[in-house]
Amino acid sequence: MFNQEKIYQLAHETIDIETQAVLALHERIDKNLIVACEYLLACKGRIVVTGMGKSSHISSKIAATFASTGSPAFFVHPGEASHGDLGMIVAKDVVLAISYSGNTQELLTLIPAVKRLNVPLIAMTGNPNSILAKEATVNLDVGVNKEACPMGLAPTSSTTVAMVMGDILAISLLTARGFTAKDFALSHPGGMLGKRLLLLVNDLMRTGDAIPTVSVEATLSDALVEMTQKRLGMTCVIDATNKLTGIYTDGDLRRTLEKHCDVHTTKIKDVMTKNCKTVAANTLAIDVLRLMEQYAITALAVVNEEHKILGVIHMHDILKAGLV
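^ that's the sequence the OP posted. Answer follows.
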């Protein structure tokens, strides 16, 4: 059975030890970091990240962070690299090798091949005097004074610090590249951010026969039939050139009925909303949703520069797309 007090104590100790290890990185931010960033920024190929053991998992995450923030990268397992996967590295690449000891045999085996390709080798080690650190083009010191593991055996503080150094490199590169939120969304089209920054009205609007429309000369009864058939709670009112002249909504219907208008004789142009809000097809769907919420609108007409009707977008269409 767990000793709760001991668990609390270990939790706080682990946080303190790893926090101090990360804070100690401040003292090692020097020109080597600048040189490493310059090599990575100048890379015309891809950043190849490699590491063995726990460092392999850190390497894989760092490569994924590079790739998702505008720096093409991938992870290569050093054991597999020496058995054929080394062919994935080409002369335009940059190699980032992570080894806390700096003497991991699987990584040292790769050094001659990397040097033959004349590829910059950036090392991330906890031992500046190690073989990997000395053979590298530039070495980043990620040493720690103490692992959070009580036995000092399981990589804990050291892997955390390596992860942070990888984030430093990635953040430095994305800033130097002028990487934007929209760029990030392009590589995350399936995520919420991707949808918010990429999904346009044009992707969701209803077009063709699905657009509720009536002629400007139609009667109120004609409009009600169209609204009932298309089930959007509104209809667009257009002229002979397909230009939007107004809309008629459920709200307009309530106001019309209060006036006791004859639905068979009343012209829709006399009861429609003339100066209605519209959107362009290239508007972000998330911006349309905000507009709808602000003005309590459930559907909007989509028009072109000549104010001709292109489609209709309904709040339900946006909600179905998973933007909220």
